[in-house]
Amino acid sequence: MDVFPIILVIAFFQIVIIQKPFPNLDQMLLGVLLVVFGLFIFILGLDSALFPIGEKMANEFAIKGNPWWIIFFGFALGFSTTIAEPALTVVAGKAGNLAAGAGAILDHEESIASFVLGLRFTVAFSVGMAIALGVIRIIKGWPLIWFIMGGYTLIVITTFFAPDQIIGIAYDSGGITTSTITVPLVAALGVGLATTIRGRNPMMDGFGLIALASLNPIIFVLGYGIFVYGISV
């Protein structure tokens, strides 16, 4: 049922608008079956493993009573899950090739690999910092709106100084980081932590980590672009 709307849209435009048969129909049908099966296994894994692990570890760290371990765990979780995000790997690789083709960096393998690795580590570090900041917010009970308004104000200001080549990548990086691996574990961490800490409401305090994880990479990648390309004038 989740995949059916996608299939319906693609089939409508291919048959009614483009008016051509599907190329390699047998391979496409096999791909659809693999996607459905993969989503089923993935959702099953979320329910049986990732969500319980995230909530359980958040509870255990909260019980230990040392906030620094919880903050460090949040940073490490955000960093490691972002580095493992397939979407970030693909987009960073594409950005490196396009930057080399446009002459922004040297067009050889080492230069492209260095740019891609730097971009991935920048995004991963920014997400780690965002989760650590979100954990502090939950512990202290600070309103989420302060971080959202302050963050987007900083984004708008930084955009004026960032080179045009990096702005689109920076804004997209906020979305690609919050994908299949990062979201379940980070969401479970926030809810588990807010459930365990006395005086915190899981509905009001437990959510919002994903918003920070989407916002922070934009700021850091804009800064990375200024570092690589220089200030736009």
Structural class: mainly alpha
Residues in helices, as a percent range: over 70%
- Count of DSSP helices? 10
The averaged pLDDT comes out at 84
Radius of gyration, in angstroms, nearest whole number: 20 Å
Tell me the series of helices and strands, N- to C-terminal: HHHHHHHHHH
Percentage of residues in strands: under 5%
Overall geometry:
globular
Task: Describe, in plain words, how this protein is organized in 3D.
By secondary structure, the protein is mainly alpha-helical. 82% of the residues lie in helices and 0% in strands. It is built from 10 helices and no strands. It has helices at 4-18, 25-64, 67-83, 86-101, 109-140, 144-161, 164-176, 182-196, 202-205, 209-229. Helix 4 packs antiparallel against helix 7 (164-176). The longest helix is centred in the N-terminal third of the chain and has 40 residues, at 25-64. The model has no long low-confidence stretch (mean pLDDT 84).
List the helices and strands and how they pair.
Blueprint: H1 4-18, H2 25-64, H3 67-83, H4 86-101, H5 109-140, H6 144-161, H7 164-176, H8 182-196, H9 202-205, H10 209-229
Helix pairs in contact: 2-8, 3-5, 3-8, 4-5, 4-7, 5-8, 5-10, 6-10, 7-10
Descriptive terms for the model:
233 residues; mainly alpha; 10 helices
Short description:
82% of the residues lie in helices and 0% in strands. The chain is built from 10 helices and no strands. The mean pLDDT is 84.
